[in-house]
Each structure stands twice: as structure tokens, then as C-alpha cells.
Amino acid sequence: MLLLSACGGDIKVDIENYPQPDSKGAIAYIESCSSCHVPPQPALYSTHEWDVIVTRMQQRRMEKRMPMVTNDKLELMMDYLQRHARQA
Ligand code: HEC
């Protein structure tokens, strides 16, 4: 079991609860998205919704003056989210 928590915050996420927990995509996702809240399951949103959400979350980071998620991580994460997104 691997527990990752970003930014020394209080949010603990069990990556085993997400699809393909050993993949780079899953790790990039949990690392990038667990600073402010528990990252939602990929299957909750469609591919289009993920696009919109991730863009908005970059804005949330900016508002908090947190560094942007880097492009390589973003790519890994988008690929992961698209692959496991809700089919619709
Ligand atoms: C800087 C803090 C912060 C980070 C980092 C962050 N979020 Fe959020 N997230 C929020 C806040 C605040 C809300 C509620 C307001 C909103 O929906 O914009 C939210 C809401 C959400 C929602 C619900 C949105 C909806 O449309 O109902 C989803 C899904 C989400 N975040 C996904 C993510 C993902 C994916 C990442 C990583 C890329 C991420 N969050 C990173 C602050 C953050």
C-alpha cells in the first residue's frame, strides 16, 4: 500500500483505490490532485469533463500561488484520466 500526500497537507489518499495504481499516470494524478481535496475517481467524469476540470484546477493552483503541474505530469495524468474516464 502506497500512501502519498502532497504539500505536507492532511489529505491522505490510498492510491490502491484507483485504477492501475502502479502506473505512472495514477501516481502523477494522485500527486497533482491531492493537495486540496481527495482526487475523484476517474470514472466519475467524461473525457471532455476532465479537460475542463483540469484547466480549472490549474487556475485554483494559481489562486493559491502554488506551482503549476508540469507538462510531463499533466500529460501522464490526462492520458490516465482519459483512459479511465466515464464512457459517454
Ligand atoms: C489549489 C487547490 C486545488 C488543487 C491542487 C486541485 N483542486 Fe480540484 N477543487 C478545488 C476547489 C477549491 C474545488 C471546488 C471549486 C471548483 O469546483 O472549482 C475543486 C473541485 C474539484 C472537482 C469538482 C468539480 C466539479 O465540476 O464538480 C473536481 C472533479 C476536481 N476538483 C478535480 C481536481 C483534479 C483532477 C485536480 C488535479 C489536476 C485537482 N482537482 C486539484 C481545489 C483544488
What do these coordinates show?
Strand 1 and strand 2 form a beta hairpin. The chain is mainly α and 88 residues long. The chain has a two-stranded antiparallel sheet. Helix 1 crosses helix 3 and helix 2 packs antiparallel against helix 3. It has a domain of 60 residues. It is built from 3 helices and 2 strands; from the N terminus they run E-E-H-H-H. The chain starts with a strand and ends with a helix. Helices cover 47% and strands 5% of the residues. The radius of gyration is 12 Å and the shape is globular. The structure holds heme C. Heme C (HEC) binds next to helix 1 and helix 2.
* Sequence of secondary-structure elements: EEHHH
**Integer-rounded radius of gyration:** 12 Å
Chain oligomer state: single chain
Spatial sequence of strands, sheet with the most strands: 1-2
Helix content: 40-55%
Q: Identify the bound ligands.
A: heme C
Distance between the termini: 32 Å
Globally, the shape reads globular
The secondary structure category is: mainly alpha
Strand content: under 5%
Number of helices: 3
Number of separate strands: 2
Largest sheet: 2 strands, antiparallel
Q: Roughly what is the average pLDDT, rounded to an integer?
A: 91
Segments where pLDDT lies below 50 for 5+ residues? none
